[in-house]
Amino acid sequence: MAKEEFLFRVCSSSRTRPRNDAGFTLLEVLMALTLTGMVMLAALSLLRNTYGLWQRNFSDDASTRAARLLTINVRRIVDRAYYYPYLDGKIEHLRGTDDGFDLPVVTERNGIQREGLYFAEGQIVIRQYDTAQPNEVREELLLEKVAAAKFTYLQADRGVWVDYWDDRDYPRLIRLEISLRAEDTAGGEKRVPPLVVSIPVGMECRFQ
Question: Matching SUPFAM superfamilies, A to Z (predicted)?
């Protein structure tokens, strides 16, 4: 009896003991592949969302930097505007088009010169004109990767914006609207908040 009980226990143990060398079953392999695929899809979705957020933040930062750079330099130009009457009738007043403007400014080194801001070939540049040598123009790159830019000028008496200025008064305000080329693969444009500056004379300055 004891011998039969011993043989029964041995057989039962051999049936219930895990088989380490049997490997994974097909069901276990399919479950593992399914779980791995779900994890990979979640990781890819997270990476895509993170990249999209980074791209939007980069674009917003680029617009902010562009607006700040333009504001500083336009203010630097108009704050040095020459307000006084012509000394000899040879100083031209502000000239403005939808591509840019220039006006007489007062400098410490060279006296009265002309300086302005222009959009040309996808760039915003600062142009400096030497009054002693009118044909000599110096350009300084201010902003690149510009998709579009438009300058307009506010007529104080009519209260309307015009894209050409040739009056003997300064405009009340100068406005610059600009779009940057988007950096993402989809292309497109990113609008920069409009820049509006005033020539700090309180009112038009009429040259006599």
Answer: Pili subunits
